Amino acid sequence: MKPCKRIEIVIEAPLAQRLAVRLRQLGAPGFTLIPDVRGAGDRGERRADELSGDSSNCLILIACDDQATVDRILEAVRPLLSSSGGVCLVSDALWLRH
Amino acid sequence: MKPCKRIEIVIEAPLAQRLAVRLRQLGAPGFTLIPDVRGAGDRGERRADELSGDSSNCLILIACDDQATVDRILEAVRPLLSSSGGVCLVSDALWLRH
Amino acid sequence: MKPCKRIEIVIEAPLAQRLAVRLRQLGAPGFTLIPDVRGAGDRGERRADELSGDSSNCLILIACDDQATVDRILEAVRPLLSSSGGVCLVSDALWLRH
Amino acid sequence: MSAFLGNLGSPPLLFFFLGVMAVVVRSDLEIPGQVAKALSLYLLFAIGFKGGVALAESSIDSGMLLTLLAAMLLSAGIPVYAFFLMRRRMSTADAAAIAATYGSVSAVTFVTAAGYLDIQGVGWSGYLVAAMALMESPAIIVGILLYNHYGNRGSASASLFSWKQLVNESLFNASVFLILGSMCIGWITGSAGMNQVEPLVKGLFLGLLCLFLLDMGIVAARRFRDSRQAADGLAAGQPLRLMLAAAVGMPLLNAALGLGVAWLLGLSEGNALLFTVLVASGSYIAVPAAMRLALPEANPGTYLTMSLAITFPFNLLIGIPAYHAVIRWLL
Amino acid sequence: MSAFLGNLGSPPLLFFFLGVMAVVVRSDLEIPGQVAKALSLYLLFAIGFKGGVALAESSIDSGMLLTLLAAMLLSAGIPVYAFFLMRRRMSTADAAAIAATYGSVSAVTFVTAAGYLDIQGVGWSGYLVAAMALMESPAIIVGILLYNHYGNRGSASASLFSWKQLVNESLFNASVFLILGSMCIGWITGSAGMNQVEPLVKGLFLGLLCLFLLDMGIVAARRFRDSRQAADGLAAGQPLRLMLAAAVGMPLLNAALGLGVAWLLGLSEGNALLFTVLVASGSYIAVPAAMRLALPEANPGTYLTMSLAITFPFNLLIGIPAYHAVIRWLL
Amino acid sequence: MSAFLGNLGSPPLLFFFLGVMAVVVRSDLEIPGQVAKALSLYLLFAIGFKGGVALAESSIDSGMLLTLLAAMLLSAGIPVYAFFLMRRRMSTADAAAIAATYGSVSAVTFVTAAGYLDIQGVGWSGYLVAAMALMESPAIIVGILLYNHYGNRGSASASLFSWKQLVNESLFNASVFLILGSMCIGWITGSAGMNQVEPLVKGLFLGLLCLFLLDMGIVAARRFRDSRQAADGLAAGQPLRLMLAAAVGMPLLNAALGLGVAWLLGLSEGNALLFTVLVASGSYIAVPAAMRLALPEANPGTYLTMSLAITFPFNLLIGIPAYHAVIRWLL
Ligand SMILES: Nc1ncnc2c1ncn2[C@@H]1O[C@H](COP(=O)(O)O)[C@@H](O)[C@H]1O
Ligand SMILES: Nc1ncnc2c1ncn2[C@@H]1O[C@H](COP(=O)(O)O)[C@@H](O)[C@H]1O
Ligand SMILES: Nc1ncnc2c1ncn2[C@@H]1O[C@H](COP(=O)(O)O)[C@@H](O)[C@H]1O
Ligand code: NA
Ligand code: NA
Ligand code: NA
């Protein structure tokens, strides 16, 4: 079991798709993406509705054991949250090495 | 990065819909809801099956940096869990402010 | 509120279905399974695509307050991760008793 | 006898069996959830539209209005007798939930009966569709009133429950709304409208009913299996024997009631069958959804298993042709 | 007048109303997301294929090419005047997003207009389908160029935004690609191909359009309601009155433009209507998706609410028959 | 030659190309997952039902039973030779997985071939549908037996793997179960049943096949692209050239085998083609699912890429008309 950071990001689907691509460039060892997530926050409600041009959220989960990479990811996420809303949480976890 | 509580609630879909509405009234700054989640616990299996009247679970995630609000939310959730089952976990996290 | 471990496992859908069955045998008090989760890691991208034989991931969440059970679960998960890939994270949380 | 075999040998029923078989042999066959939901919306849309067009071609008379009134009264009245019957063997909450279940109706049973009549070449009137929509809700309200009067109040989810919302939801729940709406549109546009949508509304009806019943077979059999597996856990409902007796007894009692009223109203063969099927069927979508919020103490392992896994197949396989035979004999 | 009533009384429009009603009475009726998406793909496939087959039966002439050119020019030109008009009352970002919205088109409005013509028995030519596809993208690019020139650059999501990707996405977005592709296949296989797929492409068209517009009614009404509820939060867009004025004014102005050009091009009755409808409609799928990435400062509560919740129903209910009446009067 | 062009110019094949193109130009076109799944269930249902009805109109004879026996033997036998052939260049696990893949069948290739025959106006017999269902499973079991004998046992996921479950799953997997079940129902209800479901089962068949192949084009092209991108990561399979050679060689070898057996059995033109196509096709749903559990050491980047991204399009575009040409020449 190796200590690591557990980064959790909720952002709008169109941004999430591109963020996923960017994550690899930033050196994330991997990520998991939960699509079609609803939510509400400062910018009102978000629900999945492809027809309406409204877009739902995605939840991206990243386990990362390298602090420098964590910082790079957070720096990349911060401006997205400012301009388009969302949430990013960081917590501690143990990563089961196999 | 601001310390906050990460509240995670798994309850049946029909309750989750209404809990989401209630959350705003309780002062939650926002929430994220993952629909169509399966699971099993004391009350047997739950799967998504709209036709059968069986209902799936939802997972609700709330980041909250105000302890009083956290307590209010937990008080509202507790009776739901007693009567209809489910799980509520609280953990610590850092919230990326933007 | 009772302290517990929060186990989070991301593995391929066909394995997840069977792991869910196994979990009960290992004494897990319950579990929550999020289906159709995308992701990427060492083994490349995974997306939901039932037609193609490609399989998506599932995210399994287990709250468990008994350390012996936690260990049994982790031992069961470890070989799955080695052979088929995925991620398993363990963190601390408080479980709202009702 | 031949009516039974004819019914059992029709493609829709055989696909229902196939779904049951899929669960028995543990096949992973499954209609994706959203598609199954869409199929059920399609059936409501089609039957509503057809009913509306049929209505446009007839005239509204007092017999029609009487039938609608009788349907609503039955939906509100059945829960009362069912509640007191059930309370002798079950908790107040379970009894109230079962009462609401059997006062309300199953749209799929109705649609299947309509398909059965189409295959048999027996006509039926459009206003029966309205009867179905009117019967969904009263039972829910009566069931909860009974519980509030005879049970201990202050249930836990009560914090999320409000009467106003409940009434709104039972009046405008998706299936009631879609079927009534489609009926109105069919009624407004008449046969000119039907010409535009005929290949969808009529052409595909029986084929899509097959696929839908395939899924219902899976869903019903799965619930039956689950209820047996849960026999010793918290999830368990009442003993299986009691559930079986109640879930076959209720539709038979109600069918008798329905047949009697249909006879008093002087309904035609097809209309009498549809009316009886409505009264005899039990809800497994609208009622359970309402019960989860209003009566969380009631165990879905009891009321939902009864209506979905026992009464529904019973009506489909035995009830419809049996009621039909009785109607033929009465007429 | 009777054209209006005839249009309002057709099943597709009535189902649109039914969807709006569902939101008004707070019914939980909803077409599952993936099925709604599939319905929209079906409509593009069907209209594309039909257009292609029609094209195979005519010959390519200069009038056709001129029409396509005019369509593209309008899609690129409208954003320019719209931008300066809107900037007088709104932020540069909002003005640019609205400009792009109204330069681009709504495929569903086009499909509904085609269905309207089919019901009315008025013919139209296949190449209009190509015109629709060509009009989706230019407006997006012009809108962003305008913003980059007149607004403050360096927007936050810019890190995820690249021109190359944007151009690729607007040229090959799902709806443009599917409609052009189906058109080519219809054109290659001609009436022999049509024979193979006719029951799907033609038989089910109006029926599935009904179900799709039912969902569009829900979606549009929901957005209208949300935009009113958000009136004081961060999510709020412009004041409702301003939005209403702009969202009815833009299609009227553009329809006038479209009618003029259609008249200059000498288009037939059906073609002129489709052309006008394209010019008058506003995008609510492709443009908002692009704006979220390229112009995150623009508020979807403004531009999306305008095109989806106001302009779309306006064109559907009033625009199509009104433009048709004018065309009839002009011809 | 004209058979090739005729095949390539048919709407279903052109839609497959369109799907491939969508991936090439990086369009975001995609059929929603549940709808794609539903389309595949529809095709199995329709082909099964048609086969059953055809069966009801013929009589069961020894030639039929011999064909079914031959089909099963080929499905069990092909993996043996394929395994030893592949093991010369690949790991034991990969060789076993490929062996199972090519012993088993692709239902979609079969359905497309049936559609091809329908378009060409060539008849075929219902029992071929049963042959398809019987060929899915034996190869899986033989493949795993081979691995257990020649490879190192004790694989990691073995804890989740049980023979009993595997056998059950391969016998009753969704596609086998649905196709056999629909065939039985078609056989029981005969042409009376067909009358009820004809608009769905026959009318929409080719149209929905187009939409399904559109999605298969996307899915196959995406996997081809991914396998090339992964060329240096852990996810990489075998070198592309080896995979190409094997994935074109296997269907050709197996087609030769199938043609020979079909000739010995004296099958008619249509039946011989379907039989050959079955033998020549490779599984990309049932086998990979089983391999993931039973042989996690085998790399889906190899066996799945081969069957889905190379063999499937090869059979679709070249194989079917080529085998047909040979059969015509042999007869
Ligand atoms: N406090 C919160 N807890 C959990 N999720 C949140 C929270 N606030 C916002 N979100 C999620 O982030 C999305 C955008 O939030 P906002 O930008 O605040 O509108 C929402 O739709 C939610 O899904
Ligand atoms: N220990 C657990 N860990 C994670 N999820 C759980 C756990 N126990 C119950 N759940 C979830 O809560 C739902 C209701 O649980 P229960 O009331 O125990 O039947 C289940 O269907 C699961 O989704
Ligand atoms: N660092 C990570 N953080 C979150 N999820 C991951 C991570 N690495 C892998 N995954 C998930 O586990 C799956 C299999 O990973 P892998 O075996 O590394 O290819 C991926 O598809 C992801 O969904
Ligand atoms: Na009833
Ligand atoms: Na426009
Ligand atoms: Na084969």
Strand order of the largest sheet of chain A: 3-2-4-1-5
Kindly report the average pLDDT value of chain A. Answer: 92
Radius of gyration of chain D: 19 Å
Oligomer: heterohexamer
Number of strands of chain A: 5
Which structural class do you get from the secondary structure elements of chain D?
A: mainly alpha
Low-pLDDT windows of residues of chain D: none
Major sheet of chain A: 5 strands, antiparallel
The greatest interface here is: B-D, 25 and 35 residues
Summed up, the helix count of chain A is: 2
**What is the alpha-carbon Rg of chain A in Å?**
14 Å
Total helical segments of chain D: 15
Gap between N and C termini of chain D, in Å? 18 Å
Kindly describe this structure.
The complex is a heterohexamer, with 3 copies of chain A (98 residues) and 3 copies of chain D (331 residues). By secondary structure, chain A is α+β, with helices and mostly antiparallel strands. Helix content of chain A is 32%, strand content 43%. Chain A has a 5-stranded antiparallel beta sheet. In chain A, a hairpin with a 2-residue loop joins strand 2 (31-41) and strand 3. The model of chain A has no long low-confidence stretch (mean pLDDT 92). Chain D is mostly helical and 331 residues long. Chain D contains 15 helices and no strands. Chain D has helices at 2-8, 11-24, 33-57, 62-87, 92-103, 107-120, 127-135, 138-150, 163-171, 174-203, 205-229, 240-265, 269-280, 286-294, 300-330. In chain D, helix 4 (62-87) runs parallel beside helix 8 (138-150). Chain D is globular, with a radius of gyration of 19 Å. The two termini of chain D are 18 Å apart. The model of chain D has no long low-confidence stretch (mean pLDDT 91). Chains in contact: A-B, A-C, A-E, B-C, B-D, C-F, D-E, D-F, E-F. At the B-D interface, helix 1 and helix 2 of B face helix 3, helix 11, helix 14 and helix 15 of D. Strand 5 (87-95) of chain B pairs antiparallel with strand 5 of chain C. One sodium ion binds at residues 102-105, 254, 279, 281-282 of chain E.
